[in-house]
Amino acid sequence: MENQMNVKLVLEDGSEYPGYSFGDAGVIDRVCTVVFNTSMVGYQEIVSDPAYTDQFVVMTYTLIGNYGMTEEDYEARSLTMGGLIVREYNDQPSNFRYTKTLEEVMCEHHIPGIWGIDTRMLTRKLRDHGSMRGILTSIDTTNKAALDMIKAAPVLTDAVARVSCKKRWYTRTANAQHHVVAIDCGMKINIVRTLTSKGCNVTVVPYNTTAEQIEALKPDGVIISSGPGCPEHASEVIDCVRALWGKYPMFGIGLGCQILCLAKGARVTALPHGHRGGYPVRCTENGKITSTAQNHTYIVERESLENTGLTVLYENVTDLTLEGVLDTQNRVLGVQFAPESAPGPQDNYALFDRFITMMKEDN
Questions:
Q1: Which ranges constitute the DSSP H helices of 1-158?
Q2: What is the Cα 185 distance to its own chain's centre?
Q3: Kind of pairing between the strands at 88-89 and 63-64
Q4: Each residue of 105-145: pLDDT tens digit?
Q5: pLDDT tens, residue by residue, 264-280
Q6: What's the pTM value of the predicted model, to 2 decimals?
Q7: Which of 255, 195, 233 shows the shortest CA–CA distance to 51?
Q8: How far is CA 242 from CA 194, 238, 263, in A?
Q9: Peptide bond connecting 345 to the previous residue in cis, omega within 30 degrees of 0
């Protein structure tokens, strides 16, 4: 650890937050969108979630790194987060399962970090004024130079292409009852783990796989995974889903839910600072409220569902935004949150059972 502040975060509004470098200190002058996550645990899953590509993530929980990184708990093997911003970093984990420290993993994957800043003040700024772009740079960089670099940095629109697998891969389980094709838009491994645990063989395919190629695999159902960026940029997946509509049961998660809705002509819009962390959602079928883990910037506009065949299945309790959709006739289900995560801890696993029931009824 450094004894002197050597790095700072500069936001596009000119505000500066000096601190101490950790992770890959060799990555300097990186520009990303700054967002915050309110989760109290699960930093390993957050750091390894492809949906955080091109983002600096502010952790609102004050102590990060204290239980290290565990080999079995990654959500992806290639880590693509832009950077990590924390109040206090602990580099001496106390956990019998840990195999590496958080900093060691960040160095391996070229992820910079900053600790020692007032994350409460930073989070309030993002909450009140919305997410904004920022740069992690040397403490000696002038404010003008930092702002010039932020303005000059291009806004990337190929996040899904960068994080998707490059060729298809498989998981197999004994006495499998169903074959699921999962379109990888930046998929978390736990989606595959959950399907496998429920008796499904899974074939994971790249984001640009065509509908004809998926049909050739003879699936019983199709999953459209979560992932990073604006769903409107994933035009290949939208076209594929539109072509498969009604042919197979489909389940969209996170970005996948937004893609399902776009395929039917609905609209999406960006939230000021997104939903990242734990949020309660209400099921419109029975009024039941469950705890969910979320990570998304975009939401589907509720009124745009008219004439799409999709109805609202879940809504956010705190801001009433749409959190899930259903098309009973065409066996299509989509949720904005992450049912494979465990905030409940198993409140939302039933959504996978519902998808499996759709496949059973289709056979």
A1: 43-47, 102-108, 119-129, 143-152
A2: 10
A3: parallel
A4: 999 999 999 999 999 999 999 999 999 999 999 999 999 99
A5: 999 999 999 999 999 99
A6: 0.94
A7: 255
A8: 26, 6, 5
A9: yes
